[in-house]
Write a structure and sequence with these properties.
Number of helices: 8
Radius of gyration: 25 Å
Order of helices and strands: HEHEHEEHHEEHEHH
Number of domains: 2
Helix content: 25-40%
Structural class: alpha+beta
Length: 216
């Protein structure tokens, strides 16, 4: 739980409402998170991945009770990702055992259709036994400034969480980077480039810096 235990890898964002700003921020936040709450993988289906919002200290709950979601001027919650895959090696081993038993009982190897049918049945059986792999990534949202911190190292995961926030809360999530801050302040982006004094050589007039997510 990085928010409470001090991990330092996070990306910072500001948010802008897609429509009018909500009058009751806490009610809006709770309703939005519940609309995109985590739902477990249906083992009877073919899906291998599930993702959604959960409470910070209880990844099994998506009730978002006031006492579990709000801490002063912050909303603290997590984004949970579950994956459920049957290892290919396990599937092959079980199918080989079945094929050997089938051949011994019937005096011939199984036909392709028979093997495919057994493979499907084995997959469902093994999915029932498999334990999903779970990861939770924490999110902090300042209710006054509407700035957000996503506590994750993977850029792909950060992007997924931002998309989920935009869908749940009808906001635009914008990275807080030197370039974006300069743009809001009316500063030319070229002014952010390194100076000749800084690197000890003369720079071309077109030098600029690359935008990245702000991280600490």
């Amino acid at each position: 739980m990085p928010v409470l235990r001090g991990a330092v890898t996070f990306s910072r964002f500001r948010t802008e409402p897609a429509k009018d700003a909500p009058s009751d921020v806490k009610r809006w936040m709770t309703k939005g998170l519940k609309s995109h709450a985590f739902e477990p993988i249906d083992r009877r289906s073919e899906e291998e991945r599930a993702a959604g919002f959960v409470e910070l200290e209880n990844p099994e709950s998506s009730e978002f009770a006031t006492g579990n979601l709000y801490y002063g001027e912050y909303a603290l919650f997590s984004f949970r990702i579950d994956t459920l895959k049957v290892p290919a090696s396990m599937m092959k081993s079980e199918l080989d055992k079945w094929s050997a038993a089938f051949g011994k009982e019937n005096g011939r190897p199984p036909a392709r259709a028979e093997k495919n049918k057994q493979r499907a049945e084995l997959k469902q059986l093994l999915r029932q036994r498999a334990v999903p792999r779970t990861s939770t990534l924490d999110v902090t949202w300042n209710l006054k400034t509407h700035t957000v911190q996503v506590w994750a190292a993977s850029r792909k995961t950060v992007d997924e969480i931002c998309v989920a926030l935009e869908g749940a809360l009808a906001v635009k999530v914008i990275g807080i980077t030197p370039a974006s801050m300069a743009q809001r302040a009316g500063i030319d982006e070229k002014a952010l480039g390194p100076t000749a004094e800084l690197i000890g050589m003369e720079l071309p007039a077109t030098a600029s810096v690359e935008d990245t997510h702000g991280e600490a």
